Each structure stands twice: as structure tokens, then as C-alpha cells.
Amino acid sequence: MKESWSAFDTFEHHFRPLVVIELAKDTKEETKEWLTQRIMDKKKNGGAQLLVKPLVKEDGGKTDGNQNVYLVGASHIRLLLGAETVGLVKECNDNSMRTFTYSSRNTFKDFDSHNFLTMAESQYIIKHELENLRAKDERMIPGYPQAKLYPGKSIMRRLMTSGILLQIFPLHDTEELKKLRYTWYGQVKISYQPLDQIRCYFGEMIALYFGFLEYFTFALVPMALIGIPYYVFAWEDYDKYVMFASFNLLWSTVILEVWKRCCAIMTYRWGTLLMKQQFEEPRPGFHGVLGINPVTGKEEPVYSSIKRQIRIYLVSLPFVCLCLYFSLYVMMIYFELETWALDFHEENESYFSKLMLFLPSIIYAIVIEMMNRVYRYASTFSPLSLLFNNTIYIFSLQFNFLNCFASLFYIAFVLFDMKLLRQSLATLLITSQILNQFVEALLPYWLQKRHNKKVKKRVYSIKVDTDLSLFEQVNLEKEMGTYLGTFDDYLELFLQFGYVSLFSCVYPLAAVFAVLNNITEMYSDALKICRVFKRPFSQPTANIGVWQLAFETMSIISVVTNCALIGLSPQVNALFPDSKTDLILIVVLVEHILLALKFVMAFVIPDKPRDIQIKLARLEFESLEALKQQIKFAYSEIREGGGVGVAAQ
């Protein structure tokens, strides 16, 4: 029987700040009092039942520091109850992994220890509770009549859209961060990344990204080793390239299937493989009237699926098409620049004119990166912002794929210029890698160091009555940029995978540059997430989500492109001088055979190792047995109650 929240005293004298809430400077006092009260109120009254206090308290009637910054924490009991609410999976005394429940807490390892929940998990629980603070009887935010509320509306979302709430972010643990930084990137050495430590500090989403980055880098090494002799010795025989392309196609299938197994092993150990996601509560930005979920029976906002489809196809889709049209227009300008550079080289025949041949590709690569970033920025303020998660990812992937690869497809299958294709592919790959390293890590790190010096001077000029280290830490972190998630990082790997796999026949050296880039990427991304941005909230996840499908789709497209490129080679065309139809039929046949082989391999290689499958099956069996026992117990109680009733009569 589930225990009532009101039965627990979730107050705790020892306050450990976990999350920071920053309000606007001109926020009214009644709004602050109302918000802090809602955060501290018991669950039965619609509150979050958390602990909250301002960063700097009043001292002798004088207020020092920013009184609009609040620290949020929770007692150990409250966090355990929250762990049950969000469905965290923890290790039991028998070494199995089970969904945590407070009533069966004694069966879990070290449940009474404050280290039972990682700091990332505790911050995730607090974030979940804050985001699910929803209006009940309130019609407006106190002090702001124009900020309307209705039953079911997310309070935090409304405060943010009204400009009252500036940000919510989790605090760093400075000591743990120092240890992690040292073992992660503080020393240059060839070793595996500390994925378990990354997971404990940043959560599963970040750890899975770095795990995939590491795995993908090791998987690229065979391609790089095979590609070097092809490039150095300038082998042009089609039969050698057929072998290289065939290996590429099989390689792309195997590494993606093996990654599923590696991912399952990691996420089972972390507990997220067992987490139930299908009945999670609506996101805080979800709009809709309050209704009853027909599956869970919970009261939550609902929204018409018809309206959602109308917004996707009549608003968001035209926006994406407009962006694609502009991308194609820029591509045509690039080809005009290529023609100009070629004419200039033919007229001058100098070293400078040879360098000018690379200039259009370099400019185009820079423009592509700019367009990709502008599109992602515009989508957050455009009709695309009406969508969420996978839908936004799919639209963005379509745009980025066409923006980066449309010119290469045009050169290969319309212009039939393999020399220009190799030059453009090499220039686009190398230029994009250099730009990403500079824009995503080096430049933000330099700017952040300059900004930190200014903030420290301002902090030390304020005399405060609280722990100066905490005051300084909060003020430094709240001025940092916000980490927007792993989308850009996965996108960079996705495009890199495309450069390596789509046109491997033309430029086998692409894998070498990819390996070199990814080695530096591990260090630069680690530096970025530890030093440049605010600490992101943990986000439990069991896999890399839509990116697995994206990489698999790219591998299928690579089969078609590589077969077509081999079919276009002069050596293959020489075998069929009389009938091009026979050539096309043979290329299509080979392509279908390779695709069939890919799907057979994907079917043969199981997504989860055998031992993980057995553990999951055993857990499901035990859950069914426990459910049967509960039903029997309830039925016996009903029968005994009925018997008592008859005797009383």
C-alpha cells in the first residue's frame, strides 16, 4: 500500500543547496512570497514540498547581494520519495536492478546513505518537482494581473514567459568537479573516458554521448588504416575500390549494431534501461486544457492531435521548405564560384591560382556552418518551436543533411566530376571540423575566462553575511552560458559519418581526419561542459534515441551512393561498352544484395547481450508473480470482509 505524502516530515535542518532559481530584479515581493510558499507547500496542497532560501539573507535591516536568487534543496526522505515518483532504478541487495519504491527501501543497497542518490539524480528530482508545479485555483500570478493562469498551467513556464523567472540551473559540486576534470582531461594520456563518473556527475544523457563519441572514434580506426594506402598509393583500379566500398558498407552496419549492445550494457548498469518512459508526465511547456489521461487516469493537460498535425504541416513544414530553398540558392552561387576559380586557374597557371581552387569550397563550408547555426537558432523562435524533441530533430536533420551534402550529390551525379567531388569533400570536412572546434569550445572558453575575472571583482566588492565561496560560485555560474543539449554534438558526428561513408570510394582519407578530430573533440567537449557552460540537468535515457535511426538511415543511403559511384567509374563502364542498361541492372542488383545483407546482419546481431536479456526476462517474471500475489491478497481480503458482513447480519 502506497504511503501518503502527508505522513512524512520532509523538513531537514541541514540545508544542501542543489538548484538555483533566479528571478528578475524588479520582481514584486508578493510574487516572491507566493512562489517560495508554493515550492515549500506540502504535495497535498499543490506544492513541491522542497526547501528554499534566498542566497543572501538580511542582516541588521540591510540587504546585501541579489535577493532575487534562491537556493533550492530537499531532505533525504523527500528525495527518496521523489526517486519513486520519477521511477529511478537502483541496485538491490541481491545485485539486481529494480525500480525504487520507498516502501521497499530496505531491499536496496545503502538506501539510508546520503550517497544513495547521486547529486545529478537529486537535482533531476528537484527539477521534475519544480516543473510540475501547476496552477490550481489561481487565475493570475500574484502581483502581475496580465500574467494569466488556468488550471493545469505550468507555473514555472508561465513565470519564464512573463519575464519573471530568468533561469533555473543545478549547482556544481566544486570538489567533485575538480576530481572529474583531472581524471577526464586533466592529463594527456591514451585511456578510456571515466564514463561512470561522468554519469554520476552529469547524468546519463551526457555520459551516453561521450560513450558514443569514444566508441565511434575506435570504430573509425580500421577505416582509417585501410584508407591510408588507398590514398598514398593513388590506387585507381575499380576492383580495389569495390573492396574498400564493400568493407565500408559492412563496417557501418556492424558498428551500429554492436553499439546497441554496448549501450544496453551501460544503461542496464546505470538503471535507465529499465526506466519506464511511456507514461511520463507532460513536459512543462506543454499547453492544453486540464483533462484525464485515459491510460494513467492522472489529471494533466491534454491537446488536440488534429491541431498538432495542422501546425506541423501548414506552419512548420513550409518554414523548413523555405530554408531549404535558400540553401539550394546558396549552392548554385557556390558552383558559379567554382567555375570562376577554374577559369582563373586556366588563365594564370600559378601557385596562387592553385590555392584559389580551394577558396570556393572553403567559403561554402563556412557558409554551410553559418546557415546550420542560424537555422537551429531560428527554429527556437519560429513555428518549429511548436514541436518538440524528435519532431524538431527530424526537421533539423533533413535541413542539415541537404545543406551539407546536396552539393556533393550534385557534383557526383549531375556534373560527374570526381576530381571536384574529392576536392569539395576534403575541404568541407576539414573546414567544418576546424570551425566546430573553434566555435564550440576554444572561443567560448576564452570569453568565459574573461567574463569570470569581471564577475569575481564584482563579487569581492560586496560584503555579504554568508559563505563567500558559495556566493561567488552562484554568481559565477549564473553568468555562464546555458548548455543546450547534445544535439549539436551528435549532429557533428552524424555529418562526419556521412562524409566518411557516403563517398568513401572517392576520398578514403576522410576516416583519418575524422579520427584525429574526434580525439581532440573528446578533450574540447569535456572542457566545454566542465568549464564553459552551466551544469546541465541530468536526463535519464536508455539509448541515443532518434540518432540511432539517423545513423542507420545514413548507412542505407551510403549503400546506394557507393554502388552508384562504382557504376560511374570508367573501369566499370568499359566492361559494358554496348549496353548501359546491363550496367544499371547489375549496379541495382549489387545494391539490393548489399542492402539485404545489411538487414540480415542487423537481424542476426541481437540488440542486447544474452545475460542482459535473461536479467530483463527474470525481472518481468518476478513482477508478474508479485502482481499475482497482490491480486490474491486483495481477493482474500474481500472474501474475509464479505464473510464478516454475512455473520453480522
From TrEMBL:
Pfam families: Anoctamin (PF04547)
Entry's localization field: Membrane
Keyword annotations: Membrane, Transmembrane, Transmembrane helix
Membrane topology: Multi-pass membrane protein
Domain Anoctamin transmembrane residues, every copy: 198-618
Transmembrane annotation, as ranges: 206-235, 241-259, 312-335, 355-371, 392-413, 425-447, 493-516, 583-605
Entry-linked InterPro entries: Anoctamin, Anoctamin_TM
GO MF assignments: calcium-activated cation channel activity; intracellularly calcium-gated chloride channel activity
Keyword Plastid applies: no
GO CC, one annotated term: cilium
Family: Belongs to the anoctamin family.
Name listed for the protein in its UniProt record: Anoctamin
Protein source organism: Chelonoidis abingdonii
